[in-house]
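Priority: low. Protein: Atp18 subunit J of the mitochondrial F1F0 ATP synthase. Input follows.
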Amino acid sequence: MPAFKAPFWKMMHPFILGGAGTLLLISKLQDSMLKGPTYANDPRNPYYAELQAAKHKEEGH
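Result:
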């Protein structure tokens, strides 16, 4: 099979970088929301145990 001669990366790099940036920003936003006070006490939160341990340590238990 012959090599692909079109300048694929040259044409697609803005879309690839934009997609990577969007995923990074959404990930950071999701993490900050999960650690916020609204969702901190929800047992379904993946950070629940970590947040409760920090809360108890802060209170001096």
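The chain has a mean pLDDT of 89. Residues 32 and 50 are 14 Å apart (CA to CA).
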